[in-house]
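Tutorial, part two.
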Amino acid sequence: MQVTELIKAIEETAPLCAAAPWDISGLQVAALRQEVKSIAVCLDPTPQSVRQSLDLGAQFILSHHPLTLKPALPAKLDAYHEVLRLLIRADVPLYAAHTSLDVNPRGPVGWLAADLRLVNLTALEPVPSPLEGGMLGYGLVGDLPQPQAVEQIIGTLESTLDLSTATLSGPPPEKIHRLAYCTGSGSSLLPAAHKAGAQMFITGDVKYHTALDAEIPLLDVGHHCLEEEMMRRMCHLLQQQLNGLTVHFVPSASPFRTVALS
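Running the prediction step on this input gives:
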């Protein structure tokens, strides 16, 4: 498959024209290579993920997070420099589907809504859609098929996610029948979730005062796990769509870990 064809296929799910103005979704590192037979999908384009991708024989790497939001000269021997060195030496392009993927609730970002069987879905922060008949926006809110205790919802999450560093804040939870979530760092959407009638909000990177002022139960599962699963689902989607291409998922670990107390 030609690189241009592959990028077109990615952008059918992650429309680049809908990415946030501040974001740098799209091609991160260009390559002379024109044809691709194997690709790798990962959350972060770290040196470790890039090396593992190349070891798998990937000729194209798709990440969620951009290589950097502030491009700079590779004047230091740091992770940024190492990723550039690895990619350019291997002649492998890097493409990031960041907010372009986040904004499409019908894509892999909607995996949690599907797992929880949410209905009557709407975006917490709608954005104008360049796609005919397409709903685009950040975060999702919907109704559970039946009211559930927070412990039941957490139990469903535990079957897929590592919740070892998760925290729960806000008022004591009751039965939940309407739930909202945003992958990654979405605590700024908490007021929108409350306004939309959500009785619980799931996201990552919650700050102290946000937790202190929360009017509904707020489950912070961390930035990593929801998006790691999203990219795993993106990998499965591409495996189904890209006949004849080998598509690998490169897993990663959260940079946060629990403290073992003696």
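The two ends are 54 Å apart (CA to CA). In part three we will examine how such features are distributed along the chain.
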